[in-house]
Design brief:
By secondary structure, the protein is an alpha/beta fold. It is built from eight helices and 14 strands. It folds into two domains: 124 residues, 2-Layer Sandwich (Nucleotidyltransferase, domain 5), CATH 3.30.420.250; 86 residues, Nucleotidyltransferase, domain 5. The protein is 28% helix and 32% strand.
Length: 284
Amino acid sequence: MLKPAFQIAIADVSDEEMLQSRLLVEVNPNAFAYVLLNQRNMSPLVVKYFQLEPSREVPLTETLREILEEDALLKRPVKETLLVYNFPESSLIPEPLFVNDTNREIIDTLHGNLQKGLILTEKIPWWELFNVYRISPDLHQLMQQSFTAGKYWHYYSLLLKSYKMFDSSDADDCLKVIFYADKMVTLVVRGGKVHLMQTFSYQDTRDVAFHLLNCCQQLGLDQSAVRVLVGGLIDRQSALSTELHKYFLKVNFEEIDESIKITDELKELPLHYFSSILKMAVCA
């Protein structure tokens, strides 16, 4: 069985607690994570993160199938299940310009047409935007079979929703970055409007600096004034953190909102590791 890279869990979650809880599952090409949030007292019961290494021999769907079949908690009934697809083949379209018939053409133009995936669309709450995205039909079928009552979202949509609910500030431009082992999801908000939502791959700290500085140059952000909000798999004392502080004056590590109960189990790891996914579980 594939072991989680990290996990936080209270012992012996009861059936009553399960039925008071929202399960949020995130899938991306190289990671699988889920949060079980008791909505009655806003207490996270379980947080798990798996690092994945799919290959031609063992594709992503088979790796996920193994996790889904062997994790007993994922088979138990819950109040609500939310499935979040974190794949970069996405386009945010202003509501006045959205035409349903052009969705596939837009994705094929922006991301290529070698992959004949499933095209999904959703209206992003609190923003005048639609999200059009492409995912693997095999993956979607697996998730439908595993979570028959699950609701589906794209990561970008929920990140924007949680940003509006927890992080937005009319006074400051914001560069929000969520780090994974080999990629970062980057959101730029200026004047209350989305100017960029994109996933960048990186191999070292220089790649990260290049992408973020290029965002500033292309979008007219002032490095000394922009609020850089950082979350995900980044350590405060790491070379990556040092690189960010080298170029930006306002670097803040993401906090867990005060509405979420910080348990003793949560304190075992830096809270910014999973602050974004917890905020999504609250606002979804």
